Automatic annotation (TrEMBL):
The protein's name in its UniProt record: DUF5050 domain-containing protein
Membership in a protein family: Belongs to the TolB family.
SUPFAM superfamilies in alphabetical order: TolB, C-terminal domain
Source species: Desertifilum tharense IPPAS B-1220
Membrane-crossing segments per the record: none
């Protein structure tokens, strides 16, 4: 065999090796590059045609369908002890708030009203659930006991008030409202008093999410022309842009330890679940299908079992 032929075969072999390597190392490929999650993430997906609440688990290759119902189920929120999930469902004809066990069993309707109830969020002590409802004609922020009793209107405003989120200490509620003409992030006391505009700019700011330490709020904003993830330092008022991509990024959710932020993005063609560091670095894709995957919610740490005194 001539030296020229040997060089030719060597080059072909190298190219083949590189091609095969690239095939098995696509960005976000769970086999080679995607690190395991540190906690479970509930999210919404219509990968089977209708919306259901699914669960991403650290050592499971495929997400688990928790609601598995022909009606649309969405907007999952964990109880602070990680034992229950509140979610919105259309299974009774209109949007209602349901509660289920963390494994999807025992799904119970909490609201049972003719209006649309959505966007539930548990209080840090687990005793109450805040949510959005149009039962009086427009979207308002309500709070009820965790069993669905004693609903109270907190906002009572002609605008649309949605996506409420408790502060980690339970003293405040952040929410999205269009009472100033465009959608802004407001914060109010937990009893609905003293609403304050935090974002105050001409573009849309939505989906507030408190950091576990209560010092930051992450949200999605179109202030730079397309939806991106930002964080607001509540002490200094400083704003940080975390994502910078031609795709739309929304629905941020902090990990329990505050080191990561999950969100949904269509940067790869359709909406998928991503996780990035809390400073915006190293975004990693965790779902991969042709349906919509969005609105992630991290599972809180489970309570430690009591120690055996013996």
């Amino acid at each position: 065999m001539s030296s020229r032929t040997q060089r030719y075969i060597s080059v072909i072999g190298l190219l083949l090796f590189l091609w095969v390597g690239s095939f098995f190392a696509q960005p976000g490929d769970a086999r080679t590059r995607t690190p395991p999650l540190t906690s479970e993430i509930a999210f919404v997906s219509n990968r089977r045609g209708n919306e259901d609440v699914y669960l991403l688990q650290p050592r499971r290759s495929q997400p688990l369908n928790l609601t598995n119902h022909p009606a649309d189920d969405a907007t999952a929120s964990w109880s602070p002890d990680g034992q229950f999930i509140a979610f919105r469902s259309f299974r009774n004809g209109d949007a209602e708030i349901y509660r289920m066990n963390a494994d999807g069993t025992n799904q119970v309707n909490l609201t049972k009203t003719p209006g649309g109830d959505t966007s539930p969020a548990w209080s840090p002590d687990g005793r109450r659930i805040v949510f959005s409802s149009d039962r009086t004609g427009n979207d308002e922020i309500y709070v009820m006991d965790a069993d669905g009793s004693n609903p109270i209107n907190l906002t009572n405003n002609r605008a649309s008030d949605r996506f409420p989120e408790w502060s980690p200490d339970g003293r405040f509620i952040a929410f999205t409202t269009d009472r100033d003409g465009d959608r802004e992030i407001y914060v109010m006391n937990a009893d609905g008093s003293n609403p304050i505009n935090l974002t105050n700019n001409p573009e849309d700011d939505i989906h507030p999410a408190w950091s576990p330490d209560g010092y930051f709020i992450a949200f999605s904003s179109t202030r730079n022309g397309i939806a991106e993830i930002f964080t607001l330092d509540l002490e200094t008022g400083e704003l940080f842009r975390l994502s910078n991509h031609p795709g739309r990024d929304a629905g941020p959710a902090w990990s329990p330890d505050g080191s990561k932020i999950a969100f949904h993005s269509n940067r790869d063609g359709n909406f998928e679940i991503y996780v990035m560091n809390a400073d915006g670095s190293n975004p990693i894709r965790y779902t991969r299908n042709m349906g919509f995957d969005g609105f992630p919610a991290w599972r809180p740490p489970l309570p430690k079992p009591p120690e055996n005194p013996g």
